[in-house]
What we know:
Layout lengths: L11 H9 L9 E3 L7 H7 L5 E3 L8 H12 L1 E4 L14 E4 L4
Parallel strand pairs: 1-2
Antiparallel strand pairs: 3-4
Amino acid sequence: SADVTFREDATADDLIDAIEGNRVYIPCVYVLNKIDAISVEELDILDQVPHYVPISAHKEWNLDALLEKCWEYLDIIRIYTKPKGQIPDYADPVVMPSQWS
């Protein structure tokens, strides 16, 4: 057993993270479906939610924004390769983390 004293505002999760040292946090995206069933005023209220993308899967609304947000949060990029003197193959890009580019 041990007495632990924090000199900062920390949670139990912070303590576990410091002891284990192997936690990796990744960002999340809240996908709010069925926006076709709510009013514009309600959508304005939902706009205050951080890290969210409103969609309507049934009517296929805003799916492009969801895809863009996934690429942004995963921090990945497409790289199109080509042999010298030829056009790039836009159908089969190499996808990698942006820090590797």
